[in-house]
């Protein structure tokens, strides 16, 4: 079996016994060791790979909270506020007014030849437009005959027109559901909150997760985004994993030209038993680049969408408290069942009331089913305070914090959702570190763009889009930030024995950079060019990716 010796200007290993190197030896997609050519010669004859000789290598970045939808969404109309880069590297300008959003949809509608085809936008958030809500009459200006909808930037709200509501029988009075706001006329406004309310209309708009999970083109587009971001392992956090999609996922990820390890988490909907049992059964169908057998639970909604569950005093603007996606008692039952079956669980918990519910439920579940090293992980966990972090540590929980929120919604959190004090403690990386809670940081792509180096920059600087520092005391240094997007994220997925550092026995997964993240000024980290990746010993250059 042949050995390849990768040469680089510098290799940052994340291995404390050998933190820096110039070469790494690889055989059969795994690392033999990192060091000098003289040290690595003990493994036998090798082929010297000099293509990366002027680059800086670090462990392949691990995105511990993302969704394959990031790839599929680029087939829809981008309606977000911020500029966004697509899988081909093209930058799409953000829409800076409601009028611009509607004009984009109108142009897309005019280009559709099929009168029955739905029109779908994504990335929209009214919070950037003085929180002026989008109602069905707004989208009726785009079309009154075809279903038109936009998925909120948080992923927890859909705005739709009258035709979409009519298609599911909801263009009427008499609907009584917390996720379906009504107007003065007693009719749905067209804003639908939470999975129950969104589900039926999602199917009319091509947004149902079952369809998206089996989208081959979307999967390929997602993998191209990963290469451009330096990501070699990424989650699909909250997938339905329909049986009919599994053969495609297995075959595609196994292909020689597929550059990403995908870790789907099966979303729990309804009774927990079937989901937990299916997750346990799926483990046997895992492969190197498709890791199955985990569960995602969603406890509440989003803070910027005013659907997260907050403790007293609630939202600063007086909005009603958010939604329970899973009642606390059901949450506890699901956690207990997962512990019993040895199935790892990640729980979406945005608001601090939702975090309390998970901590209470986990405490009860562990009393009934003790399990060492379970690594159940709280995802987002944005408003957790120091006392909650201490409880996490005592219960053996991990946390994956949404550092990107500081930039994308920090100003809005400061003035509109939770106010200055709570905004400065959001996504408390320094508190997690001080409390001894294993932590990662994430993008939640497509909610924010996939890009762990940008996420690390956010955790280091905690700057909003306007330049305000949100909680200087919660800043972390570059070493801790880089660890959070490598070993930290790998640990939350129970993959730290395989990825996250460059050392003997691990997968040959490298992020290839044009410059040194430890040497550039810290403010420049978010702009550090990613050349590509090495995944399982295979080189993928971003400039050589297919397009279209």
The count of helical stretches stands at 18
Oligomer: single chain
CATH topological fold name of the largest domain? TIM Barrel
Runs with pLDDT <50, length 5+? Answer: none
Helix content: 25-40%
How far apart are the termini?
36 Å
The CATH superfamily title of the largest domain: Metal-dependent hydrolases
List the helices and strands and how they pair.
Elements: E1 4-12, E2 20-27, E3 30-35, H1 37-40, E4 47-49, E5 56-59, E6 61-63, H2 69-72, E7 77-78, E8 84-85, E9 91-92, H3 98-110, E10 119-124, H4 136-140, E11 148-152, E12 157-160, H5 162-167, E13 191-193, H6 194-204, H7 209-213, H8 216-229, E14 231-239, H9 246-254, E15 261-267, H10 272-282, E16 294-298, H11 328-341, E17 345-349, H12 352-368, E18 377-380, H13 386-395, E19 398-401, H14 405-417, H15 419-423, H16 429-435, E20 439-441, H17 452-461, H18 478-492, E21 510-513, E22 530-535, E23 538-541
Parallel strand pairs: 1-4, 1-5, 6-14, 7-10, 10-11, 14-15, 15-16, 16-17, 17-18, 18-19, 19-20
Antiparallel strand pairs: 1-2, 2-3, 5-21, 8-9, 11-12, 12-13, 21-22, 22-23
Helix pairs in contact: 10-11, 11-12, 12-13, 17-18
Verbal overview:
- The protein is α/β, with parallel strands linked by helices.
- It folds into 2 domains: 142 residues, Diaminopimelate Epimerase, Chain A, domain 1 (Roll), CATH 3.10.310.70; 286 residues, TIM Barrel (Alpha-Beta Barrel), CATH 3.20.20.140.
- It has 18 helices and 23 strands.
- Strands 1, 2, 3, 4, 5, 21, 22 and 23 form an 8-stranded mixed sheet that branches. Strands 6-14-15-16-17-18-19-20 form an 8-stranded parallel sheet. Strands 7-10-11-12-13 form a 5-stranded mixed sheet.
- Helix 11 crosses helix 12 and helix 17 crosses helix 18.
- The longest helix has 17 residues.
- 56% of the residues are buried.
- The model has no long low-confidence stretch (mean pLDDT 96).
């Amino acid at each position: 079996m042949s050995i390849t010796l990768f040469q680089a200007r510098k290799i940052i290993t994340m291995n404390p016994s050998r933190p820096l190197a110039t070469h790494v030896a690889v055989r059969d997609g795994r690392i033999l060791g990192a060091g000098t050519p003289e040290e690595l010669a003990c493994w036998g004859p090798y082929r010297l790979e000099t293509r990366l000789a002027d680059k800086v290598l670090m462990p392949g970045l691990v995105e511990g909270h993302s969704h394959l939808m990031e790839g599929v969404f680029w087939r829809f109309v981008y309606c977000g506020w911020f500029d966004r880069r697509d899988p081909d590297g093209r930058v799409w300008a953000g829409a800076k007014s409601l009028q611009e959003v509607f004009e984009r949809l109108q142009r897309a509608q005019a280009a559709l030849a099929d009168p029955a085809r739905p029109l779908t936008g994504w990335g929209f958030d009214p919070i950037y437009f003085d929180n002026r809500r989008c109602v069905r009459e707004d989208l009726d200006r785009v079309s009154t005959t075809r279903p038109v909808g936009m998925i909120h930037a948080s992923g927890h709200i859909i705005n739709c027109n009258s035709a979409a509501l009519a298609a599911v029988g909801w263009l009427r009075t008499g609907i009584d559901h917390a996720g379906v706001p009504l107007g003065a006329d007693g009719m749905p406004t067209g804003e639908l909150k939470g999975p129950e309310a969104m589900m039926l209309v999602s199917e009319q708009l091509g947004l149902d997760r079952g369809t998206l999970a089996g989208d081959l083109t979307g999967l390929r587009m997602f993998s191209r985004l990963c290469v451009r971001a330096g990501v070699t392992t990424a989650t699909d956090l909250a997938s339905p994993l329909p049986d009919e999609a599994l053969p495609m996922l297995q075959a595609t990820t196994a292909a020689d030209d597929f550059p990403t390890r995908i870790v789907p988490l099966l979303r729990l909907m309804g009774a927990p038993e079937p989901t937990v049992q299916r997750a346990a059964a799926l483990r046997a169908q895992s492969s190197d680049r498709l890791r199955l057998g985990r569960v995602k639970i969603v406890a509440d909604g989003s803070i910027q969408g005013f659907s997260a569950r907050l403790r007293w005093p609630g939202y600063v603007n007086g909005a009603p408290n958010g939604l329970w996606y899973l009642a606390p008692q059901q949450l506890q039952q699901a956690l207990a069942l997962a512990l019993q079956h040895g199935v790892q669980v990640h729980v979406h918990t945005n608001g601090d009331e939702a975090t309390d519910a998970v901590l209470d439920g986990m405490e009860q579940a562990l009393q009934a089913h003790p399990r060492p090293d379970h690594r159940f992980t709280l995802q987002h966990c944005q408003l957790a305070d120091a006392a909650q972090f201490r409880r996490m540590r005592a219960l053996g929980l991990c946390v994956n914090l949404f550092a990107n929120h500081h930039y994308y919604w920090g100003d809005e959190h400061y003035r509109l959702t939770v106010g200055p004090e709570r905004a400065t403690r959001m996504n408390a990386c320094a508190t997690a570190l001080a409390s001894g809670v294993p932590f990662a940081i994430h993008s939640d792509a497509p909610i924010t763009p996939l890009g762990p180096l940008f996420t690390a920059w956010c955790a280091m600087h905690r700057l909003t889009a306007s330049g305000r520092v949100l909680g200087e005391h919660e800043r972390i240094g570059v070493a801790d930030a880089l660890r959070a997007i490598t070993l930290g994220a790998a640990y939350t997925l129970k993959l730290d024995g395989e990825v996250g550092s460059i050392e003997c026995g691990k997968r040959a997964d490298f992020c290839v950079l044009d410059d040194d993240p430890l040497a550039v000024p810290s403010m420049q980290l978010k702009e550090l060019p990613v050349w590509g990746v090495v995944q399982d010993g295979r080189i993928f250059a971003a400039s050589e990716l297919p397009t279209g």
